[in-house]
Design a protein that fits this description.
Blueprint: H1 4-12, E1 18-20, H2 21-31, H3 33-39, E2 42-50, E3 55-59, E4 71-74, E5 77-80, E6 87-91, H4 104-113, E7 117-122, E8 133-138, E9 145-153, E10 160-162, E11 169-171, E12 174-176, E13 182-185, E14 208-211, E15 214-221, E16 245-250, E17 259-264, E18 268-280, H5 284-289, E19 298-303, E20 308-314, H6 315-319, E21 331-334, H7 338-353
Parallel strand pairs: 1-2, 10-19, 13-21
Antiparallel strand pairs: 2-18, 3-6, 3-9, 4-5, 4-7, 7-8, 9-16, 11-12, 14-15, 14-18, 15-16, 17-18, 19-20
Helix pairs in contact: 2-3
Length: about 375
């Protein structure tokens, strides 16, 4: 048994043994999970995928005279202004009124890079907020606060997607080839954070994370968190969409190489988010969970043509492009930047070893509510 305080002390003294998820799995495979628990203090995990449920809160400061910023547009992308006079929220998937291939995700990237954006605001004039129109070209330096609050990031598991119809389908999972020609998936598999802590024993509210090159924190359970998702009887891992995380992070710390907007043809705009989470190896149970391999992780295959689940696949089959489904051999296509996710586990390992990234004790476990029910 170890504690996070004990591990942090070792980090400060440069004595902590830190392994990437890949290294930890190799050790567990060679010597067993008990040896992993004894020899290792921290394991670094990561994922890098489109995460649509993301966006930033912005405070632009007051105009002179003051105005109530009710309708706000950044590069023709509307932000939600129904909060306060100078606060608004820019969603990553909000599309420009003049170009549907450009959206909030692109504006966020420009802010990260320090580039100029067009800022326009309108509002009803009142005695205390007499100004009704404002426009200016701005950069991030002109803003008071700009920080991420992402309601749903870092899915623990997610359905793969296919298409049994006669025509190609354009979805948020990318283009699905007809007649089960492809299976599209998202997720880093065995190095993904929540797959290495399947019951969230170490990950909770207040957990410090690597977020797009800077630091972030888990602020709540993510939306659509399903605490009752079906689990495999053998591995006890979820086989359907399950845990998610709400994340808060300072946009000013984000680095351009760790975030990227994208336009998904036929669907719309999304945003690649990179997240790394260190998992303290507190006991043999956690070490056993950290031993998970792609062959152990099962996900459902959802047919977008019929709306039905037509089978299951392992992440080993998906990552190795070795799929058989309904008598066919569809090609496997990923939405994730898997190689970059592996690089993030290395970067986070280096930061912890250098003493620049310490672990945090969650202030409250997840889920808080954890119920996911559809609107019928």
């Amino acid at each position: 048994m170890k504690s996070i305080d004990e591990i942090n002390k070792k980090i400060k003294e440069n004595k902590a043994v830190v392994l990437t998820a890949s290294q930890a799995k190799e050790l567990a495979e060679d010597e067993g999970s008990k040896s992993l628990a004894e020899k290792c203090d921290v394991v670094t995990t990561a994922t890098y995928s489109p995460m649509c449920s993301s966006g930033v809160f912005i405070n632009a400061g007051h105009t002179n005279p003051h105005m109530k910023m009710q309708k706000v547009f950044l590069d023709d992308v509307q932000a939600y202004g129904g909060i306060a006079c100078a606060d608004f929220y820019l969603g990553a998937t909000q599309e420009s009124v003049s170009d549907k291939t450009y959206g909030g995700a692109h504006v966020i990237e420009k802010l990260v890079k320090g580039e100029i954006i067009s800022f326009k605001a309108n509002g009803t004039a009142t005695d205390c907020y007499p100004k009704s129109h404002f426009s200016k070209e701005i950069t991030i330096e002109d803003l008071n606060q700009v920080y991420f609050f992402n309601p749903r990031n870092c899915y623990q598991n997610y359905n793969a997607a296919c298409n049994s119809s006669e025509r190609e389908l354009k979805t948020y999972m990318g283009s699905l080839l007809p007649n089960l020609g492809s299976v599209n998936f998202a997720g880093a598999g065995e190095i993904s954070p929540l797959m290495n802590d399947p019951y969230l024993q170490t990950i909770g509210i207040g957990t410090r994370i690597f977020f797009c090159g800077g630091e972030g924190f888990i602020s709540w359970e993510g939306t659509q968190y399903n605490a009752f998702a079906k689990r495999d009887e053998k591995t006890h891992l979820p086989v359907a969409p399950s845990a998610t995380l709400a994340i808060t992070a300072d946009l000013r710390q984000v680095k351009p190489e760790f975030i990227a907007p994208l336009y998904i043809n036929g669907y719309g705009v999304s945003l690649y988010i990179s997240i790394g989470i260190p998992i303290p190896v507190l006991n043999t149970d956690i070490a056993h969970a950290l031993s998970v391999r792609n062959k152990d992780i099962i996900t459902q295959v959802h047919d977008f043509a019929t709306g039905k689940t037509i089978g299951t696949l392992t992440y080993e089959q998906l990552h190795k492009n070795n799929i058989r489904l309904s008598g066919k051999k569809p090609v496997s296509r990923t939405m994730s930047k898997i190689r970059d996710a592996y690089k993030i586990t290395e970067i986070l390992k280096t930061q912890i070893e250098a003493g620049t990234f310490e672990l945090t004790q969650p202030v409250k476990p997840l889920p808080i509510y954890g119920k996911c029910t559809p609107i019928e």
